[in-house]
Amino acid sequence: MAVVRDLRVLLRLGNFRRLLAVRLLSQCADGVYQVALATYVVFSPEKQTSAAAIASAMAVLLLPYSLVGPFAGVLLDRWRRRQVFLHGNVLRALLASATAVLMLSQVPDWLFYVSALCVTAVNRFVLAGLSAALPRVVDAERLVLANSLSPTAGTLAAVAGGGLAFVVRLAIADTDAAVVLLGSFLYLCAALMSLTMAPDLLGPERDRVPARLTAALSGTARGLAAGVRHLAEPKRRQAARALGAITLLRFCYGALTVMVLMLCRYAWSSDTDEGLALLGLAVGISGVGFFVAAVVTPWAAVRLGPARWIVVCSTAAAVLEPALMLPFTQATTFVAAFVLGLVTQGAKIATDTIVQFAVEDGFRGRIFSLYDVLFNVAFVGAAGVAALMLPPDGRSAALVVTVAVIYGAIAGIMARFERR
Fold this sequence. Notes:
It is a single chain. The chain has 16 helices and no strands. It has one domain: MFS general substrate transporter like domains (Growth Hormone, Chain: A), CATH 1.20.1250.20. Helices cover 82% and strands 0% of the residues. The two termini are 33 Å apart. By secondary structure, it is an all-alpha fold.
């Protein structure tokens, strides 16, 4: 198969393999850390968690990205990206260790959230830098395949990290602090792996951006405005539409994530450990969907085009999501987790490709940081909507139907522009 042949060629590229290894270790650590936070906040036996509490936790941890994200983009277009991976992962290892100490201490909840926020804030620099650096290690001909393999492999690594965290939490250690320390160790491994690449390998070009950090910070607003104007140019409007579509898809995924959390916590089991195991199973099945998306999307993107593939993914979700979620049974919900993992990741791969082809290298850091901001605001907004609509046990037909309508609207709007 051509895809298999291209994949073998891609993996022969040493710098691509090294960048991929940094991504895998970083996102595996993210998965471990995020599951540790989820079990501490949602599945602690002494806590009676509500959808509103979940939404509040997500807001505390994710909304500040709206402030960090734009600065990350401007700085990523000025800092050497290899150094961002090195120093960022070392810093996260230290901060994650501090989070573990706070979990074992009798401290106010706000102090724990501040520590977790610092870890996830640094994450914005690392993830945006990984996407912006990818075109520096592969040629344009194989960029679609690289976008399929690299971010999806990172997502799978995060899922694997989450699975590892579930195993450690349920079978080995009876404390979330031990799981956080495992994540800290993986962050340190990612930092060491980044040292295998030359400092200037991943860009950006030093002669295209201001060299002084003070100039970069003072020009943040102008840089963001330039990035928005860059997206508004006629030949880049497809990238803007794709970003809008993936933002709405992320909103849908976030709302359903909160629903599944509540179903696992209250509807399907009264035992917290059993509920945690069910959530782990749902996450794993969704991860299989991510993997299938990585296999299918390169083929589909070549034959249909990335934008039309987003239409197909949205249409499939609009039809299958209500059929599978409305029964509110474990079996159909797990099938829905697979389908939604496939279509969400498939659309994300297509969006990454559209943005990377349409956006110039000097703007990629800013655009991908804005991309991350949209992702997080959409997810938090979805959690807030879910908190208003979900009953205590998580069963809400109104939310399922609302999400299906949004999926259908995405498909219709994207199809209309593609016909033009």
